[in-house]
Amino acid sequence: MIRSRLSSTIERRLLVNYRVDPYVAAALLPAPLRPQLVRGQAVAGICLLRIGGVRPGWAPAATGLTSENAAHRISVEWDGPDGVERGVYIPRRDTASRLNAFAGGRLYPGEHGRADFTVREDANAVRVAFATRDGAVEVDATVEPAGELCGSELFTDLAEASEFFRLGNRGLSPNAGGRHLDVLELSTDAWKVTAGRPRSVRSTFFEDLDRFPPGSAVLDSALVMRGVPADWSQGEPFRLGCGAGAAAAAAWAVWGSLSGPGSSSGRASWWGRRGWWG
Hints:
The chain is mainly beta. The chain contains four helices and 14 strands.
């Protein structure tokens, strides 16, 4: 894969967030990843991203490309050599761009599926809808601007939500080889999000009862990013442990009986599918 940094501008990014039963989330993760908890709940969601000016870091902005992309994500943590590390596990990424679909997993980390997007934006709301060409996922999300973050059971205010997602800047995506996860890291000196209010959200990924039993995934909040310059760099492949899903759920059952729900503090000793953009 090409190791050079990519430069870009995040023209519009919607982070639509769900609070998820931690045992359900754990069963969806490959070892050694575990859900990162906030107030006893796992955090998952959909990133709906229009990214522009994508180019090698040495190239002029005028040569960059623009595309619509989507990622279904679960916030995760794991035990690294210097303590607990964090990021997002991305089981599925989709794009409107044929180039992204070709390059993902070949030239840059992560594989993309193809999808057809419908986007409508005005001063009162942003609507992003897409359907994947393999028929697996459909999403239709409308988010209104909001002065402050209201109604969230995960985050007390916008500042807390912003910091949570700022720190989870590494995306870990399945690799076709199956033995490691591709890693892509977002960096920016201009991080800024504003509050959104979900007017309506539909995702067949989160509505799949085989994946999320009734009541286990609840829409929580939305955040909006606009006009943020961002770089993307490839991280070292993340080596997977033995077992996934069931092993994760079993480990979390042991942890739960010992510690109960809470933040990531103190958990390290007990637990020792597609694209570029997250």
